[in-house]
Q: What sequence folds into this?
């Protein structure tokens, strides 16, 4: 057990190091920060404008339903952030195994006393840590924007939302890691992971726009729906189980595909 | 230390290796010699546990490589065909990572890394990013990662590819040093490498081991493939006919050399296996009145052994050649030729 943890840690460190040494990772982070910063600002402006409108209407004597502006703001920001992440995550996960296969380092990992599981877990944790690092500035923006609002926002809601974002990211990255383990082309891995993300989106749309047994059943599989639940402060065990299932499925499939790879024509 | 029995690997319907059997004793260096595509890498990959065999067993340190994969992985150092390197890491950082995943305890790690760096002459490059290293240095880092955890068995797939001659000598010396307390199996398609570094050679061709022996004994086995180089005064057809009749001579070929004195030819006589036709050749030449200027024994180099064992075209080529010569002899009456020619040669000699 101790060696397994040590192995996971070794893989994790190396993976993280490769992100911090990679120009591509910095480029992705820069673009992510630029776009998310802009979207944050746009959302903030929109919400402030909406609040002013409400105030004006209330001042004019029109009866308006009470609205929790800070809460609406968090929902909007995390919603946008979730969507933006779906575009970034495939680029983060594309190289996880494809790069190892291309460089031949998979042969080193596969002939070292490591299980496929520990490699997959270490890698997933590494890429997830990088994503968390990327999303941290947004948490800071939110904290600053919401420091002096009325009604005051509980930090737990903010943290829950970001926890949901991390779970969503972990699930997508885990599946992206599996896709990456199927090919030695990073581009192909990225394209297929984008397709997967698109499929998740379609699932979400079906769940939103249709009713009926099948649509409901599909709706339960929607990562985005469960993410939205968490953002709204609804902690449902079902959501957590679903995220955990996606993550474990990705790790399991990755471990299996690396095993299967060895049976292939090399 | 390594025991391979009846190992086969079949991709789809094409066998990469078939019925490969050999063993390596502790502390020995076995050279796995074969042309490209002979199945060397496949064998190495099976031994390292990277690929499963279709049939047969491979044991490393008593453990079957696929059934007890983890035990085997702990005991081997493996340099694949392309050295498995992370370009964004420094040499030292990479070796540290490898030592970690190979299970070297934290206390020993620094010493092991230092030892590996020293053995592979990488000390001054230890802070350099692998991305910035030349091919030769990368290859050395590849070897360093195979020995950093001090494994009892070291598997090296083409360890000297891409190195310059000086580096090749270094690597060969390194491998020889390693053999003192490690068992080494290395694959190569370079012949001198085997005779210089290995205790034993297994020659593989088209997936089959065609010979296993020490380099010296292999050469002896095929000594028959050796022969003589002769410098003779005389007509080439006459010489050929005369020599081919000698017992123990496999075939005779004229060497195309420019600027030979007039009417002098150089021929190469290849003798049959285990035959020593030296004196018979000399006697036959003298009997036919041909002038012999030089006669030199040509040793079979390992290269010849290799070619003999792995080239299937060679006997095919040799037979049409001999057929050609016999054809010539048949069409042109041999008696007149042998009568005419000797009369010419003594006159030449007389001048």
A:
């Amino acid at each position: 057990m101790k060696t397994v943890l040590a192995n996971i840690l070794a893989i994790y460190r190396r993976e993280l190091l490769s992100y911090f040494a990679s120009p591509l990772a910095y480029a992705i982070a820069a673009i992510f920060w630029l776009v998310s910063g802009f979207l944050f600002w746009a959302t903030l402006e929109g919400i402030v404008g909406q609040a002013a409108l409400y105030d004006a209407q209330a001042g004019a004597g029109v009866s308006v339903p009470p609205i929790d502006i800070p809460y609406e703001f968090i929902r909007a920001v995390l919603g946008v952030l979730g969507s933006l992440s779906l575009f970034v995550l495939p680029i983060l996960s594309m190289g996880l195994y494809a790069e190892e296969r291309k460089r031949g380092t998979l042969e080193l990992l596969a002939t070292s006393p490591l299980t496929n599981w520990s490699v997959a877990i270490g890698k997933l944790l590494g890429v997830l840590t990088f994503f968390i690092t990327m999303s941290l500035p947004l948490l800071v923006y939110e904290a600053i924007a919401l420091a002096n609002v009325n009604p005051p926002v509980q930090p737990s809601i903010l943290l829950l939302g970001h926890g949901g974002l991390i779970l969503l990211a972990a699930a997508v990255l885990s599946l992206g890691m599996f896709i990456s383990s199927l090919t030695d082309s990073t581009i192909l891995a990225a394209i297929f992971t984008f397709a997967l993300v698109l499929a998740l989106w379609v699932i979400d749309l079906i769940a939103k726009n249709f009713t009926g047994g099948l649509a409901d059943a599909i709706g339960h599989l929607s990562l985005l729906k469960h993410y939205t639940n968490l953002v709204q402060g609804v902690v449902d065990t079902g959501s957590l189980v679903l995220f955990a299932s996606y993550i474990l499925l990705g790790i399991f499939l990755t471990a299996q595909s690396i095993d299967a790879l060895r049976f292939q024509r090399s | 230390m390594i025991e391979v029995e009846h190992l086969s690997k079949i991709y789809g319907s094409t066998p990469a290796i078939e019925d490969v059997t050999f063993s390596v004793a502790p502390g020995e260096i076995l050279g796995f010699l074969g042309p490209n595509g002979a199945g060397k890498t496949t064998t190495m990959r099976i031994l390292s546990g990277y690929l499963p065999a279709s049939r047969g067993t491979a044991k490393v340190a008593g453990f079957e490589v696929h059934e007890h994969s983890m035990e085997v992985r702990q005991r081997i150092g493996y340099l694949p065909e392309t050295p498995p390197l992370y370009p964004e890491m420094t040499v030292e950082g990479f070796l540290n990572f490898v030592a970690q995943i190979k299970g070297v305890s934290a206390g020993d790690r620094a010493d092991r890394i230092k030892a590996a760096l020293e053995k592979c002459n990488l000390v001054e490059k230890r802070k350099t990013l692998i991305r910035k290293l030349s091919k030769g240095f990368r290859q050395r880092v590849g070897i360093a990662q195979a020995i950093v955890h001090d494994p009892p068995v070291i598997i090296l797939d083409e360890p000297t590819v891409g190195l310059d001659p000086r580096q090749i000598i270094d690597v060969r010396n390194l491998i020889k040093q390693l053999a003192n307390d490690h068992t080494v199996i290395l694959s190569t398609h370079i012949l001198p490498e085997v005779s210089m570094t290995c205790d034993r050679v297994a020659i593989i061709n088209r997936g089959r081991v065609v010979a296993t022996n020490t380099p010296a004994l292999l050469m002896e086995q095929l000594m028959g493939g050796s022969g003589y180089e002769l410098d003779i005064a005389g007509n080439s057809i006459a010489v050929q006919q005369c020599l081919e009749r000698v017992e123990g001579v496999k075939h005779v070929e004229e060497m195309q050399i420019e600027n030979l004195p007039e009417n002098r030819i150089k021929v190469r006589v290849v003798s049959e296996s285990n035959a020593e036709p030296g004196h018979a050749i000399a006697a036959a030449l003298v009997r036919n009145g041909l002038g012999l200027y030089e006669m030199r024994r040509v040793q079979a180099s390992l290269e010849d052994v290799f070619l003999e064992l792995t080239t299937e075209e060679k006997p095919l080529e040799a037979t049409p050649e001999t057929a050609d010569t016999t054809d010539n002899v048949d069409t042109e009456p041999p008696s007149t030729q042998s009568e005419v020619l000797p009369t010419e040669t003594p006159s030449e000699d007389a001048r």
Notes: The CA atoms of residues 210 and 216 of chain A lie 8 Å apart.
